[in-house]
Design goal:
Elements: H1 3-12, H2 19-23, H3 30-40, H4 45-61, H5 68-74, H6 80-89, H7 96-108, H8 112-121, H9 123-130, H10 136-152, H11 158-167, H12 174-186, H13 189-202, H14 208-214, H15 220-232, H16 239-248, H17 251-264, H18 267-279, H19 282-298
Helix pairs in contact: 1-3, 4-6, 5-6, 6-8, 7-8, 8-11, 9-10, 10-11, 11-12, 11-13, 12-13, 13-15, 14-15, 15-17, 16-17, 16-18, 17-18, 17-19, 18-19
Length: 302
């Protein structure tokens, strides 16, 4: 059977998707990609969505599989859900070609959901810009695209929240603190949680008291993000509160608090992690051991 026939059966068929066929789509040559694209164009939207979803799961579970070419192809699909899946599939890519395509989606895509996903995916590039691993001119272009998205998006929308979170890596931008403040003071719990994401990424001292306060918030989503922010900002005085959250809170909040203790990395933080590892269930022990590994790199901040 030719490669074109294999692609035809995969994309035009109506049965279940076979993992062997999906694995074979990794690292397609340019010629094979052209054959794949010809069949992709005639596939139903349901089939395109299913293929993208399965490829994304495979890539997440198996780092040796590379479906970048297919995800880039799918960024131009006529269906918004396919485009969103493609954005999610490129979650590890850091090349300038991917940055360019994501910026184009952020600025011009017809779907607010796709634009929101693009704004979130651009976070890794914003981080690279702040650590000097993106050319200055390219970093400035990204910052400007994010600024426009923040200002033009409806207040409190998913797009605005994701754009603020990503722009917050550029902590010296005056727009960052303005919109963090809006989300935090004027928004609901979801917007407050988003503000905390941005606070942690911006690492600005003016938000430290808010992060400490929200560790006690009644809403688990807010506590989860406050714990992560405390870790990103290395707030060593929050170790007792994080330790308490790590012992008896919502599962996701516990995991966030354990992660934060590892990021803080002080002697009290590592002692708390060792106590939790010795006395907790298996999932807690594993999380604590991973956090202790991170603490080795964090050093003692006290």
């Amino acid at each position: 059977m030719s490669q074109r026939d294999t692609f035809h059966d995969l994309l035009q068929g109506e049965g279940g998707l076979r993992s062997t066929d999906l694995v074979a789509l990794s690292d397609l040559s340019p010629a094979d990609l052209r054959e794949f694209e010809a069949e992709w164009a005639g596939a139903t939207v349901e089939r395109r969505r299913a293929v993208l979803s399965c490829l994304r799961e495979l890539a997440e579970d198996n780092i040796e599989y590379n479906y970048k070419a297919i995800f880039l192809l799918a960024l131009g699909d006529r269906d918004a859900e396919v485009r969103r899946e493609a954005v999610e599939g490129l979650w590890e890519e850091e090349g300038l070609a991917v940055l360019q395509r994501l910026e184009e989606l952020l600025v011009a895509d017809r779907s607010p959901e796709v634009r929101s996903s693009a704004a979130a995916a651009l976070g890794r590039f914003a981080y690279l810009a702040t650590v000097g691993e993106l050319p200055d001119a390219r970093a400035d272009q990204l910052r400007e695209a994010l600024r426009r998205a923040v200002m033009q998006a409806p207040d409190g929308s998913q797009l605005q929240m994701r754009a603020v979170e990503t722009l917050s890596y550029f902590h010296d931008d005056p727009l960052v603190n303005e919109y963090i403040g809006r989300l935090y003071r004027e928004g609901d719990e979801e917007e407050q949680a988003s503000a905390l994401v941005a606070m942690g990424r911006s690492m600005q001292p003016q938000w430290e008291s808010a992060v400490r306060q929200e560790l006690e918030n009644d809403d688990a989503r807010v506590r989860f993000q406050a714990a992560r922010a405390a870790g990103e900002m290395a707030l060593s005085d929050t170790v007792p509160t994080l330790g308490r959250l790590a012992e008896g809170d919502d599962l996701e909040v516990r995991e966030s608090a354990i992660w934060a203790l590892g990021q803080i990395g002080t002697k009290p933080a590592t002692e708390r992690l060792r106590t939790l590892a010795a006395n907790g269930p298996e999932d807690v022990r594993e999380a604590c051991e991973e956090a202790l590994g991170e603490a080795m790199y964090s050093g003692d901040h006290d």
